[in-house]
């Protein structure tokens, strides 16, 4: 296992938002953006809480940021030295992905000499409530130093402020700030203890939002002066009691690194011959592990992880389609927690189905606590009129319920944990099948069930009929429900039969999957994305882009530049074929890949990994490779869609990173499950000499070794 340190060796104020994502630390309970300790809210520092939401006025609900315990600024001889106000002579920022320790070193030059600040910090993986920080100042001249370190309660929010009341407190041996949310009166408390081991004067003070500790001393030239801080974050919905309050920084750091070593022992992927690919895929794994809900109940992973409030901190289909695969083969308990979230939010899905006149369960497109639908009807602002534009993400993306069922299917296949069926998963499957059944239409002269008025994965084309992906996934739900009803143990069957007529439902679901319309390949072998897609204007992406009157125009919707063309946002038919690849010939897969890829704008970070996976499935790893690298390195590079006007829409991309893992393991390594056994049929890119990694399967641990495109599966 190699140690990879991701670093930037120059300060660039333009990239402050990007670095906040790139250098994220987290432990599933909260995520800490990779910002500098001295930053205030205008530079978007945050400690973003998992599963805690608040709504202010008519704005959308979003996740809540805790009071920030990292705030620290240094003054030398009465002059403040901080970024971004004071340009540094040298600057380095890094994250060691193996230890998950964030570091910075900043040097400012003055007439008297150099001032150096060094800081390291971590979000403890050993104790999910703890943050540790060590801050060091050194000058190459004698100086009077003042350090202000505290808990900043005036936090960054996109649609806040979410704390209707902030309570700074100074106690005998610690300081704390408690923020109370306005919507549900949830308390979010941050506590700090600061330790110094050098002669200094210390005092505490507070203002309206924050509490501070002031440390002053006379510094001798070239001598290092360090303080350490242990902070704890908790909410009123936790049962957390800080029993280990006196833990030292070094002990907390040691335990944190030990916990991460245990994770990496299970999850690290070695790639022989391509160090960049090895770095990027393990960086992706690092991000997934930073946001995994360990030791938590009924939690899931937001579409932007824990990097802030983007996308309202909501859970999308991203989790089930792109992330859960990694966890069910490395930490099945985390995967079980993710499914548990959908079980616990079933009533919310039922409520949404009823709202739209449907039976069963229609899971929220942007799911918050309790399955609350966070998505609004108006998600886009017209760049010309400045008016909100109606979109149909909330009400027509029915494929989210199928994603939930598909995740359950994958989980059971990988773990053989059928116990989740009696714990609520079977009811989820039945209710999702009931929803799709209530959507089916049959023309007077037709012999097939159809599904009208949907939005598939390609959001540029709204309200289409018989979207290939949606119909195929609905068929999967029907078949899963019908088959699993027959396989239930007697007790589970009898319990569910009290609520449902299972015999009748089994017949209904079997009829549904056998007779639903499935888009079949045409004479040229191409599957039509939806009814009438082939009749749309067939033009290039560049042609569509040339029609933009403003770079920020939305391409989709009723009047978007792409809506009447065959140009699509992201993988749709290709996403479907990647899931059901065994139902199509390699030639059919190839023809559809070659047809749709030039017509795909890849306007979503979820797209590249699907094209990469299908390229592997058609035996073309060289075509797959650049899409894989795009997915794995998505958060390593600046750019992308970080801003919509003045609203920040950036953040990390864990679904893309989970998709990269799927490509690496299922695509290049060729891992599959056949007849209940783990199979390895590798198809590596030319520059890869081998791969080595571990997998959990059916509660057994396996070592996968690939050399010279030959795979070996060894039970450990």
Number of helices: 18
Helix/strand/pairing category? alpha+beta
Looking at the overall shape, the CATH architecture of the largest domain is Alpha/alpha barrel
Instruction: Write down the overall mean pLDDT.
Output: 96
Largest sheet: 9 strands, antiparallel
Radius of gyration, in angstroms, nearest whole number: 26 Å
**Biggest sheet, spatial arrangement of strands:** 1-8-9-10-11-18-15-14-13
Tally the beta strands: 28
CATH class of the largest domain: Mainly Alpha
Give the helix proportion (percent range).
Answer: 25-40%
Describe this structure as you would to a colleague.
There is one protein chain. The chain has 716 residues and is an alpha+beta fold. The protein folds into 2 domains: 8-264, Beta-galactosidase, Chain A, domain 5 (Distorted Sandwich); 269-715, Glycosyltransferase (Alpha/alpha barrel). The strands form 7 sheets. The protein has a 9-stranded antiparallel sheet with strand order 1-8-9-10-11-18-15-14-13, covered by helices on one side. The chain has a 5-stranded antiparallel sheet with strand order 7-6-12-17-16, with no helix packed on it. The longest helix has 21 residues, at 419-439. The model has no long low-confidence stretch (mean pLDDT 96).
Write a brief caption for the model.
The chain is α+β, with helices and mostly antiparallel strands and 716 residues long. The protein is 31% helix and 24% strand.
Give the helices and strands, then pairings.
Blueprint: E1 5-8, H1 16-22, E2 25-26, E3 30-32, E4 47-54, E5 62-66, E6 72-76, E7 79-81, E8 90-96, E9 101-109, E10 114-123, E11 130-139, E12 143-151, E13 163-170, E14 175-181, E15 187-196, E16 201-206, E17 211-219, E18 225-235, H2 249-267, E19 270-272, H3 275-290, H4 318-330, H5 332-344, H6 346-355, E20 378-381, E21 388-390, H7 393-396, H8 399-415, H9 419-439, H10 468-487, H11 490-497, H12 502-515, H13 541-546, H14 573-579, H15 586-596, H16 607-617, H17 621-632, E22 643-644, E23 647-648, H18 654-668, E24 671-674, E25 677-680, E26 690-697, E27 700-707, E28 710-715
Antiparallel strand pairs: 1-8, 2-3, 3-4, 4-5, 6-7, 6-12, 8-9, 9-10, 10-11, 11-18, 12-17, 13-14, 14-15, 15-18, 16-17, 19-26, 20-21, 22-23, 24-25, 26-27, 27-28
Helix pairs in contact: 3-18, 4-5, 4-8, 4-18, 5-8, 5-9, 8-9, 8-10, 9-10, 9-12, 10-12, 10-14, 14-16, 15-16, 16-17, 16-18, 17-18
């Amino acid at each position: 296992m190699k140690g990879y340190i991701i670093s930037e060796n120059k300060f660039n104020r333009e990239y402050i938002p990007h670095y906040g994502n790139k250098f994220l630390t987290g432990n599933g309970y909260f995520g800490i953006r990779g910002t500098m300790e001295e930053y205030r809210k205008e530079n978007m520092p945050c400690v973003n809480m998992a599963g805690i939401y608040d709504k202010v006025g008519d704005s959308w609900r979003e996740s809540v940021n805790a009071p920030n315990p990292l705030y620290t600024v240094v003054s030398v001889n009465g002059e403040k030295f901080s970024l971004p106000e004071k340009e540094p002579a040298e600057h380095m920022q890094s994250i060691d992905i193996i230890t998950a320790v964030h570091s910075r070193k900043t040097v400012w030059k003055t007439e008297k000499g150099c001032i150096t600040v060094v800081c390291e910090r971590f979000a403890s993986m050993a104790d999910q409530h703890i943050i540790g920080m060590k801050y060091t100042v050194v000058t190459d001249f004698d100086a009077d130093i003042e350090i202000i370190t505290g808990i900043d309660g005036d936090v960054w929010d996109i649609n806040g402020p979410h704390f209707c009341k902030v309570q700074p407190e100074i106690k005998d041996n610690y300081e704390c700030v408690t923020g109370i949310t306005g919507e549900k009166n949830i308390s979010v408390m941050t506590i700090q203890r600061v330790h110094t081991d050098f002669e200094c004067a210390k005092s505490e003070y507070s203002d309206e939002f924050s509490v501070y500790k002031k440390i002053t001393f006379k510094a001798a030239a070239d001598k290092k002066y360090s303080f350490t801080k242990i902070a704890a974050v908790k909410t009123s919905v936790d049962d957390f009691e800080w029993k280990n309050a006196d833990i030292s920084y070094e002990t907390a750091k040691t335990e944190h690194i030990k916990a991460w070593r245990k994770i990496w022992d299970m999850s690290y992927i070695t790639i022989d011959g391509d160090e960049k690919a090895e770095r990027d895929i393990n960086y992706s794994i690092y991000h997934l592990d930073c946001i995994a809900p360990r030791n938590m109940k009924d939690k899931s992973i937001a579409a932007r992880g824990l990097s802030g409030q983007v996308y309202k901190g909501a859970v999308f289909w991203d989790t089930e389609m792109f992330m859960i695969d990694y966890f069910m083969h490395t930490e099945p308990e985390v995967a079980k927690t993710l499914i548990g979230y959908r079980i616990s939010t079933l009533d919310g899905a039922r409520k949404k189905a009823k709202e739209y006149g449907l039976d069963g369960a229609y899971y929220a497109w942007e799911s918050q606590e309790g399955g609350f639908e966070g998505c609004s009807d108006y998600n886009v602002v017209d760049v010309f009129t400045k008016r909100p534009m109606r979109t149909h993400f909330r009400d027509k993306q029915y494929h989210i319920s199928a994603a939930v069922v598909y995740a359950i299917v994958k989980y059971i296949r990988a773990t053989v944990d059928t116990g989740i069926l009696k714990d609520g998963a079977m009811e989820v499957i039945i209710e999702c099948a009931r929803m799709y059944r209530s959507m089916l239409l049959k023309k007077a002269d037709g012999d097939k069930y159809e599904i009208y008025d949907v939005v598939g994965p390609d959001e540029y084309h709204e309200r289409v009929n018989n979207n290939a992906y949606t119909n195929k996934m609905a068929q999967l739900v029907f078949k899963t429900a019908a088959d699993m009803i027959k396989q239930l143990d007697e007790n589970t069957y009898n319990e569910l039969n009290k609520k449902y007529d299972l015999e009748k439902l089994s017949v209904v679901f079997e009829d549904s999957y056998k007779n639903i319309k499935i888009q079949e390949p045409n004479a040229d072998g191409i599957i039509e994305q939806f009814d009438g897609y082939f009749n749309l204007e067939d033009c290039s992406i560049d042609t569509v882009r040339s029609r933009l009157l403003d770079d920020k125009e939305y391409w989709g919707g009723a009047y978007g530049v792409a809506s009447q063309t065959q140009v699509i946002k992201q993988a749709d038919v290709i996403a479907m074929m990647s899931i059901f690849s065994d139902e199509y010939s390699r030639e059919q897969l190839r023809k559809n890949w070659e047809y749709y890829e030039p017509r795909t704008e890849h306007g979503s970070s979820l797209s590249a990994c699907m094209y990469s996976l299908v390229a592997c499935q058609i035996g073309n790893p060289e075509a797959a490779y650049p899409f894989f690298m795009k997915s794995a390195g998505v958060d390593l590079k600046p750019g992308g869609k970080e801003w919509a006007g003045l609203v920040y829409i950036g953040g990390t991309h864990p679904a893309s990173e989970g998709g990269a893992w799927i490509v690496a393991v299922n695509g290049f390594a060729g891992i599959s499950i056949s007849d209940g056994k783990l199979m390895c049929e590798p198809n590596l890119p030319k520059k890869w000499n081998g791969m080595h990694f571990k997998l959990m399967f059916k509660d057994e641990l396996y070592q996968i070794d690939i050399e010279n495109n030959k795979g070996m599966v060894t039970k450990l």
